[in-house]
């Protein structure tokens, strides 16, 4: 993991946000999309982010437990979440319903700390948030609680469905609904910040930055709107050749015998497989960077290993294998894996969070 890349990306994003007067929340949910929440969080804060965003209360408390003191926001709750520790730790909490409002409010009373809540309006993603029809009631109840001193409505927010398709009509529709919702809150005497922009909107819709942008994937150098900015992918996935062997012509390779050597060749065994984050559906459709060039992975991707065809080149045990990286040398990228199997690079990098894959960091020093 290249923390200089994280810092470079966050620096780009905070500059973009600052042009519209917005602050930047680096989204580091799911252990920073598989990159390591603590390392990325610290790098992002050093590069100018002033908020960190995570999904769950547990993720937020883990950041506090590790000593992170910045503003932290979390938005995905379960009915048995105990909000007391989060309120006491000053975590900003999303509230999408009256039930959640009461839960946060009573936790705030119990711990004797004013809760910071961000009311979530569903503007059209239709996944979470308060329905527009119930918004006034939620705002009124929150305003009452704020007047009683148990909580502060610090934000009104929403999340976009199709920002990665610039020009998609839903984006403007969602922005208009956020505007309506914000007016209701302002009319109730509240003065919250407003936020809706994910990476794609941060990069392509400065008019939707409002007070705060919430980029996730762009922090990691993966661009949801290719061409909209120059970012540096932070994650590389490396292994080494565990065994290189000369194999005669006509030998079928690996489970199911899906590939057969045409002539005598060197096959390199690499000790990583689908248990280590390589999608099995890449079988027969992937290459690695090994010995100065790309080479095909042949046969099936197994649980723990893959086989690379190296022809007559002098590949030996211990040689470095780059499975994916930023692409600078011509090696495959996470995006290439995603495109090949019909998914998004978010899933590839997030899927690299495996206990057996050791993480190391370069860069990031001040
Ligand atoms: C994941 C997430 C983001 C970041 O989205 P990206 O597309 O990765 O930039 C922002 N806000 C919320 C609520 C999210 O869940």
UniProtKB/TrEMBL annotation:
Alphabetized UniProt keyword annotations: Isomerase, Pyridoxal phosphate
N6-(pyridoxal phosphate)lysine: residues carrying this PTM: 29
Domain Alanine racemase C-terminal: 234-362
PROSITE patterns linked to this entry: ALANINE_RACEMASE
Biological process per Gene Ontology, one example term: peptidoglycan biosynthetic process
Superkingdom per UniProt: Bacteria
UniProt cross-references to SUPFAM superfamilies, sorted A to Z: Alanine racemase C-terminal domain-like, PLP-binding barrel
Cofactors demanded by this protein: pyridoxal 5'-phosphate
InterPro entries recorded: Ala_racemase, Ala_racemase/Decarboxylase_C, Ala_racemase_C, Ala_racemase_N, Ala_racemase_pyridoxalP-BS, PLP-binding_barrel
EC number: 5.1.1.1
CDD domains, sorted: PLPDE_III_AR (cd00430)
One GO cellular component term: cytosol
Catalytic reactions on record: L-alanine = D-alanine
Pathway the protein takes part in: Amino-acid biosynthesis; D-alanine biosynthesis; D-alanine from L-alanine: step 1/1
GO MF annotation, one: pyridoxal phosphate binding
Residues involved in substrate binding: 127, 303
Active site positions: 29 (proton acceptor), 255 (proton acceptor)
EC main group: isomerase
NCBIfam families in the cross-refs: alr
HAMAP family: Ala_racemase (MF_01201)
Entry similarity comment: Belongs to the alanine racemase family.
Function according to Swiss-Prot or TrEMBL: Catalyzes the interconversion of L-alanine and D-alanine. May also act on other amino acids.
Name used for this protein in its record: Alanine racemase
Annotated organism of origin: Kutzneria albida DSM 43870
């Amino acid at each position: 993991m290249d923390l200089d890349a994280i810092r470079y990306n966050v620096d780009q994003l905070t500059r973009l946000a600052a042009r519209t007067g917005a602050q930047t929340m680096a989204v580091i949910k799911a252990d920073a999309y598989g990159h390591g929440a603590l390392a990325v969080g610290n790098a992002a804060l050093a590069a100018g982010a002033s908020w960190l965003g995570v999904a769950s209360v547990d993720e937020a408390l883990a950041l506090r437990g590790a000593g992170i003191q910045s503003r932290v926001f979390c938005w995905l709750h379960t009915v048995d979440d105990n909000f007391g520790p989060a309120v006491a730790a000053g975590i900003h909490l999303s509230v999408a319903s009256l039930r959640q409002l009461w839960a946060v409010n009573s936790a705030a009373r119990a711990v004797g700390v004013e809760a910071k809540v961000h009311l979530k309006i569903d503007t059209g993603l239709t996944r979470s948030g308060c329905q527009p029809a119930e918004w006034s009631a939620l705002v009124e109840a929150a305003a009452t609680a704020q007047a009683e001193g148990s909580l502060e409505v610090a934000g009104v927010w929403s999340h976009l469905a199709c920002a990665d398709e610039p020009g998609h009509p839903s984006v403007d529709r969602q922005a208009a609904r956020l505007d309506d919702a914000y007016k209701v809150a302002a009319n109730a005497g509240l003065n919250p910040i407003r936020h809706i922009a994910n990476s794609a909107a941060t990069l392509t819709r400065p008019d939707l930055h409002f007070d705060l942008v919430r980029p996730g994937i762009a922090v990691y150098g993966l661009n949801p709107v290719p061409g909209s900015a120059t970012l540096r992918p932070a994650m590389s996935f490396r292994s080494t050749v565990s065994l290189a062997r000369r194999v005669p012509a006509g030998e079928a390779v690996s489970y199911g015998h899906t590939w057969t050597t045409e002539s005598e060749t060197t096959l390199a065994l690499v000790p990583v497989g689908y248990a280590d984050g390589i999608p099995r559906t890449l079988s027969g459709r992937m290459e690695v960077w090994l010995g100065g060039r790309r080479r095909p992975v042949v046969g099936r991707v197994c649980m723990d290993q893959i086989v690379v065809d190296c022809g007559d080149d002098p590949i030996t045990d211990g040689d470095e294998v780059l499975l994916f990286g930023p692409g600078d040398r011509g090696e495959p990228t996470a995006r290439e894996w995603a495109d090949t199997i019909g998914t998004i690079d978010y899933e590839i990098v997030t899927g690299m969070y495996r206990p057996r894959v050791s993480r190391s960091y370069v860069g990031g020093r001040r």
